[in-house]
Alpha-ketoglutarate-dependent dioxygenase AlkB (EC) (Streptomyces globisporus), 198 residues
Amino acid sequence: MEQRAELVVACRQWAQGPVPLRHTVLPGGGVMSVRTVCLGWHWQPYRYARTADDVNGARVAAFPDWLGDLGRAAVAEAYGDEDAAQAFAPDTALINFYDDTARMGMHQDKEERSSAPVVSLSIGARCVFRFGNTEGRGQPYTDVELASGDLFVFGGPSRFAFHGVPKVYTGTADPAAGLRVGRLNLTLRETGMASGDA
Ligand code: MD3
Ligand code: FE
């Protein structure tokens, strides 16, 4: 099976639990249109914990070694630097599912206590990824189309840039990957949490 189809199979399994794929509820009461499930550490706005206290209280599924290997291979290829790749030790994955109407507003990812890069993999429908600046949500930003199979490494100053997904294109799914509709994005990250932290 193609690697992206294998990833879709794994994501379907993780979506079932122990913490199910769900719409994240924000502290102000807003509900994200994107659905998310986490591995290794659970992200809830705005902290990481081992258990999903905003969902069902369960401990999240483990972050598998093979996903760390995939992340290191991505850093090796992007940076051409085997030492940087070996130093990358992601301990969480956020898996986002977008239906055709889901969006993600402009934000920074700053709950991680680490400046390690973030590896992002996209599978399924094409979308507009808006890559901004480190100062604020507004201009200047660059719109990039992400398609199934695209992988990005966000390191250096890009790690702290505002970014979002303003649009998913309908009718662009990737049935060969096992997704009839919608888009999956996996981000591999270092939380900077100690393994003993709650
Ligand atoms: C740049 N996800 O999960 S992936 C997110 O397509 C998120 O689901 C989007 O933004 C998605 O936080 C964009 C690309 C991405 C992810 C994390 C980053 C870019 C990033 C963190 C820092 C800088
Ligand atoms: Fe983000």
In short: The domain at 2-193 is CATH 2.60.120.590 (Jelly Rolls). The longest helix spans residues 65-79. Residues 116 and 129 are 21 Å apart (CA to CA). The chain has three helices and twelve strands.
